[in-house]
Design a protein that fits this description.
By secondary structure, the protein is α+β, with helices and mostly antiparallel strands. The chain is 32% helix and 21% strand. The strands form two sheets. It has a three-stranded antiparallel β-sheet with strand order 1-2-3.
Length: 110
């Protein structure tokens, strides 16, 4: 049996993204890409024509980053640029994370 041990370093890049680098191959993977892999094929996540879009925008200097499968989605690069250019880059945090209270509201209205 052969085991492979990679030397992985974790750091925060200048844009505030948590990033992992394989010291041997110099391959970079960002934490939001890992989150996107939960619900998407790796070919989509790492394709040249796609980006990972954060549904919840946080300030770049924020220490809170929401790199969860429910807060990211894979989009093509041109759509990603349009989302940011038109101001529709994010949604209220409640619409992504607070599904329980939405369900409670719907039950209460019934």
């Amino acid at each position: 049996m052969v085991f492979f041990v990679a030397m992985i370093q974790k750091f925060t890049d200048q844009r505030g993204y948590t990033t992992y680098v394989d010291q041997e191959t110099k391959t970079l993977i960002r934490e939001h890409q890992l989150a996107a892999l939960v619900d998407n094929d790796s070919h989509e996540v790492f394709a040249e024509e796609t980006d990972i879009h954060h549904l919840i925008a946080t300030p770049r200097n924020s220490k809170i980053k929401l790199d969860l499968p429910s807060t990211v989605c894979v989009v093509n690069k041109s759509k990603h640029r349009r989302l940011h250019a038109t101001g529709y880059a994010s949604v209220p945090i409640e619409s992504v994370l607070d599904t329980e209270s939405e369900n409670q509201k719907e039950s209460a209205e019934s």
